[in-house]
Amino acid sequence: MIDIASPLRLRLDSAALVSNWQWLAAQSGKACGAAIKADGYGLGARKVMQHLAAAGCRDFFVASWAEAAALMPLAGGASLSVLHGVGESDMVAARTLPAKPVLNSVEQVARWRAAGEGRPCDVMVDTGMNRLGLRVEEALGGALDGLAIDTLLSHLASADEDSAQNAGQLAAFRTVRQRVPARRYSLANSAGICLGPDYGFDLTRPGLALYGGTPRPEAAGHIGQVAFPEARVLQVRDVRAGETVGYGATWTAPAEGRIVVVNMGYADGYLRCHAGQGGATWRGRELPLVGRVSMDLIAFDASEAGGLAEGDWLALDYDLPVTAARSGLSQYELLTGLGARFERHWI
Length: 347
Ligand SMILES: *Cc1c(COP(=O)(O)O)cnc(C)c1O
Hints:
This protein folds into two domains: 8-212, Alanine racemase (TIM Barrel, Alpha-Beta Barrel), CATH 3.20.20; 227-346, Lyase, Ornithine Decarboxylase, Chain A, domain 1 (Beta Barrel). The longest helix is centred in the middle third of the chain and has 16 residues, at 164-179. Helix 1 packs across helix 3 (45-55). The model has no long low-confidence stretch (mean pLDDT 96). Helix 4 links the parallel strand 4 and strand 5 (79-82). The two termini are 23 Å apart. With 347 residues, the protein is of the alpha/beta class. It is built from eleven helices and 20 strands. Pyridoxal-5'-phosphate binds next to helix 9.
């Protein structure tokens, strides 16, 4: 077999993933699930699910039935919910796959009832985000009567901020909880968990913080980095004082020095906004990104990294809160943007 190595790799720290989940579970009070939509926020949903299931996580959430199908067969004991519920074209998948829909509208509830499954489903009630979910009035007005609801969910719109909307949604959710029977109630995402035990209910649904994101200051110091992107040096170049690097000649070498060129760009989720901010390290030396990020290639100033050679691996600066603040991208974008050319290596 020929070993064709990619010039990009993503080191994924399973111990950090599990430790993040354990911290979130400890804050959650009762059960703590995991949002693994968007292929586990770009890290690989199947592996994420395996590692978290082994650690004791039982409840997993994906966006669509295609994402659910990609996770089959499910490990015994795991519960999978499909957050976008059931459209007309989802019913075949919803009948065949061992996953629950999260019903999001009166129409979806009617569709599920008409299918006559009688199997448990989850339900989303919108307490003020106006994204997915039945309106509170609909939920209280009889639309859910007689439905076998496993988990009744709502989702916080501003949990990452100190907003009065959080308490408002909590109050609305408590009202729904008193009036609509379900086996369990679930409100909090990663940021919601940090708002305190009132938000925990029976089950929480973190995503971002599992993968190393810090949703609120309360989580700082407790959440570890999981995804470590690395790029191999294609070429080392000497540059002379006054020479420029890259498209648009936006960086000029202040003195004689060296740059290294690596194969990374837009397709890998490494976007233009990293210019002037991004960087990498090699054996403890810092290599600032220089010039523009272009389609497929970028350059780093390696003048201070003596001995660095073609074929060496650079560790990209990818501490999520720091990189988000510098680049203007959200921590979610930084994770989910990591492209398919990164070979994922779980350690
Ligand atoms: C994505 C999602 C989550 C996870 O949110 P994070 O902010 O990533 O923790 C939880 N609940 C629902 C309904 C979601 O769509």
